[in-house]
Amino acid sequence: MSAAFEIGVSAQPAARAQREAQCAHCALPVPFARFEPAQAAQFCCDGCRTVFAILHDAGLQDYYAQRDPSDRAQAAPQRSSRKFEELDDPEFRKSHCQSRSDGSLRSEFFVEGVHCSACVWLLERLPRVAPAVLQARYDSTRSVLQLAWDPAAAPLSEIARALASLGYIPHPTHSTTLAAEQRRGDRSLLLRLGIAGAAAGNVMLMALALYSGEYAGMAAEYAALFRWGSFAIATPAVFWAGSLFFRGGLAALRTRTPHMDLPVSVGLLVGYLGSAVNTVRGQGDVYFDSLCTLVFLLLVGRYLQRTHQRRSAKASDLQSALAPTTARLVEGDTLREVPANAVGVGSIVEVRAGERIAVDGVVSDGSSAIDGSLLTGESLPVEVTVGDRVHAGTTNVAAALRVRVESAGSDTRLGRLMQSVEATQRERAPIVRLADRVAGYFVLIILGIAAITLLLWWHLDKSHALDHTVALLVVTCPCALGMATPLSVSAALRAAARRGILFKGGEFIEELARPGLMVFDKTGTLTEGRLALVAWSGPETLKAYARAAEATSGHPIARAFQRSISDSALACSEFREYPGGVRALVAGRDVLVGSQAFIRSILGSLPVWSVTRAHAHADLGQTPVLVAVDGEVCAIAAFADTVRADAAASLKQLAELGFQLEVLSGDDPRVVDSVVRELGVPLSNAKGGASPEAKLAMVSELKAAGQRVFMVGDGVNDAAAMAAANVGIAVHGGAEACLSAADVFTTRPGLETVALAALGAKRTLRVIRVGIALSLAYNVIGVALAVTGKLDPLWAAILMPISSITVVTAALRARTFRSVEP
Amino acid sequence: MSIIFLILPITLLLSAAAVLGFAWATRSGQFDDLETPAIRLLHEEPAQPSSAAPQPPSDDSKAR
After folding, report:
1. Which of these is catalytic: A261, A360, A467, A521?
2. Do the domain assignments include residue A33?
3. Does residue B12 have a pLDDT over 60?
4. How many domains would you assign to chain A?
């Protein structure tokens, strides 16, 4: 090895300022290599620097003053290289944008990364960063940004890129018609809630008069007035506001699935009819106050449950987010942009370096490397040349290719995969929730007890038999039971969201609470999903030469060099990129960086030590890269996708919670093995080389065998398996398709949130159980009073709110997602 | 005591008025987002000549 490079780098005294430097944007510590003594503002990464510059250019530096000082250290903004071209598609505009009278358009986006009020402030000042935006309003309840924009000023993709550049990645919401439908549903439920509340309040006032009349005496005409008054108010409350319970109850009967609405409907109906008959008769008990309160409280639960539900997007909307919507068609000597799904089989399209491929086909000209990590989960780019097959949704990283089209649009592998995600999602059996299952037995038991009560009192005292039975059914109407789940779940959902875990619905909390088999994807889930320098053999000083030679290339290996080695001021000229490597003149020396094959093709032969070492790295699942200077191989760099720092600890935690762990990856089995070794956590199985289709088949098989399967992943290759699993969990930074197939997704990097989700879910289920137990205990008291004939409307009116308050308190005071420590 | 025959209907009318008000507020989207307005209130904003006067985003309900 050449000694010319052993130039000692004198260690500079580390200044205090350098150690304590905080990023001017996100307040995280600034890494040593990024410290710039001459600058006033220091940054931890390029993302923060960009956002800082944008904010200052737009005169929005107030953002830093608005920020909560206690929440200073936040995650650095996510960087996205996405171009969002799919948003300019006319189809997208038709389904997702709404025209307004003044010619502007309105669109909605789910926005990732909003964590404090300063973020809201910044988002609503988007017009200053992207002038095409006329108005931006953020809706924290739904995490949706509503934009009014001028289509003449800029395309939507430009606005999306502006948002992404601030660190808020926009995701399309469902189409405008669906959104409007959902909003109508929300408002109608709220209206029912309001009416039931008003009715309950007014009826209670009259009931109070009636109860005091019972004890102090009341003239018959006044009693009749109050009874008829309550009757009049309770009728719309029960039959209009409460109609959804009757509909649900009927549906439960028809489909023979247990549901909470069934016992509720029985109680409401019998209570109402009994009270109505007694009002007309002018004697006997009336329960209108209890019935209205019941409808009101149950609607509160329903409302909470609904507002925390998130709907997933349709798979057909997703394909466009993954593969470009246009392709560059080659016609003789001319190139023409055409819609991707209109490209004919057999025609030739051109794909330039850095572009995503829009079609499935075979390379007809050129050679390059394809990054298929999104589609297949392979961490390393695959070299392709004439005759090799390429797929839509993968990225061409190195050089221009011409591809002969074999299929386009929904016929591509990606298109079929998205269709299977949609189909699996549709076919998946709905989760029967714990409260509903309890309600199924509950309604049978209550009806049994009611029959016994009726028979018993028929023998003892015919005139009171019906009254006592009605009283029983009213008091057992499962108000607290119906509230226990929605309250605990909505409290848990909010707590989880604050910690970066988003559940698409409460039922997934219950599902995740019971351990089973948790299957992990590798690339991007257990690992960082990008290459990093893991070993370097050779003189340290050479690193700077290799970095300089790779400085301008877009190849994943080159980008790994740029990330792993800090920039040096070495001059680089005569840069040339070949398949498999680069050659450049760095500080007057001829530097070659590339694969063994590439270096051998230029130098003719390789020293033995470099070949053995390269093989050793390859056996560990790492990618060896040789560095040659002035015709001599001097160093070997090894790159690998590194395991996430918190992966081992999080997996251990999950194992402690009772989960069986398994790795199912699309990557090379050798790479999977080395990752599993590094994790050091006992796994029941670890498998590599699984295609997306194979993952889906494996998960379906395990599920058919009676296993409860949880799939954790980040890519398109996991999407179908996630949709098929009991619960699909997408980790931070996942692909769009994956987010839509997932039932749970995390907005913070790492696997810690996955472990926290499982732990929090377990605690939430415990809270739900306590709530159900409490409400059943109150019902036992109610039943005892009713069967012995001691229950009158006053007792019913007292028992019901007390039981509900207990359950509400238990649900809201529970600590579910607060901390990782059990 | 017979005044109750007059007061009770009046009470109910008042309640009905409140319910109607609530229905109007719900339909015009005032309860769609209960969190952001609380945050928005705290943001001080220097007078901005360029952007249009803020209007509730739910203008679709009125068009209906």
Report:
1. A521
2. yes
3. yes
4. 3
